[in-house]
Amino acid sequence: MKDLFSVKDKVVIITGANGGIGNALALGFAKNQSIVHGIVLKVPNTKSPNVFYHKCDISKPKQFAKICETIFKKYKHIDVLINCAGITLPNKKPNKQYPQVNWLKTIEINLTSSFYCIQSVIPYMVKNNQGSIINITSINSESAFPRNPSYLASKGGLKMLGKSFAKDWGARGIRVNNIGPGYIKTNMTRNSFKNKKLRQAIEKHTILNRWGTPDDLIGPAIFLASDSSRYVTGQDIYVDGGWLANGLLID
Question: What b-and-e string marks burial along 194-211, b requiring 16 or more CB atoms within 10 Å of the CB?
Fold first, then answer.
């Protein structure tokens, strides 16, 4: 039973590995003896055992493809891809049309670049007839939130992109699943967290009555990366403290 969720010696590629969630996942997998390759725009000064960073703009497919080629040549296998890189560009002006430039940039990073990354790793996973791809989506892929149409569309699209690849490549042993975080305390959500009224309102809407932390994503990700989830594909796991399941608030 102790090896049920083992990810020891699995080669794991994580995009956005210097962000709040991406960094937690990189350190979490490394702690559990995975060989982690973090894809970042800027290589951090701090070094961690079993985490190797690669400077890369994932919106440039050739850069990422070259990194995958190098990793596969060294280890002869790529076991896990976690698409964690993402941006959010909400409209700061209520009742104003959403800027087209924000739409294009968000879709490019959150959705199109994830497509490129998946396309790059699949040929290597096919060589060994196994692999796990995990997309970090959001509760925004299920529920509407104000003034951020590009983020909602990108995360909804990423959710269905995962299901599409799960359908296309399942026969070759490749599983694709989505993890949808709720409100997680990171740099991306710091303004909401700093607003006491908004922070408390969000806490109240969760069943667990708290915000999440990046570490809350490690367990679900390890489950989906490990052989214990070998019959799980095309699924959405929401790590949201019960946000989506919660109904009318009655004190």
Answer: eeeeebeebeebbeeeeb
CB 232, CB 177: distance < 8 Å: yes
- In a domain, residue 3? The reply is no
Query: Where are any strands of DSSP class E within the chain?
Result: 11-15, 35-40, 51-55, 80-83, 131-136, 174-181, 236-239
Radius of gyration of the chain (CA): 18
Does residue 21 lie in a domain region? yes
Identify the bridge partners of residue 37 per DSSP, sorted by sequence position: 13, 52
Question: Angle at which helices 61-75 and 113-127 pack, to 10 degrees?
Answer: 20
Residue 48: which pLDDT band, with cuts at 50, 70 and 90? confident
Q: Is 240 helix (H, G, I), strand (E, B) or coil?
A: coil
137-183 pLDDT, tens digit per residue, is 999 999 999 999 999 999 999 999 999 999 999 999 999 999 999 99
Q: Give the catalytic positions in this structure.
A: 151
59, part of any domain: yes
The verdict on residue 6 lying in a domain is no
pLDDT score of 85? 98
Q: pTM of the prediction?
A: 0.96
Q: 5-9: long-range contacts at Cβ-Cβ below 8 A with a sequence spacing of 24 or more?
A: 5/222, 5/223, 5/226, 5/228, 6/32, 6/226, 6/227, 7/32, 7/33, 7/34, 7/80, 7/222, 7/225, 7/226, 8/32, 8/33, 8/34, 9/33, 9/34, 9/35
Question: CATH code at 192?
Answer: 3.40.50.720
- Cα(223)–Cα(6) distance, rounded to whole angstroms? 9
Mean pLDDT over 189-196 rounds to 90
Query: Coil, strand, or helix at residue 79?
Result: coil
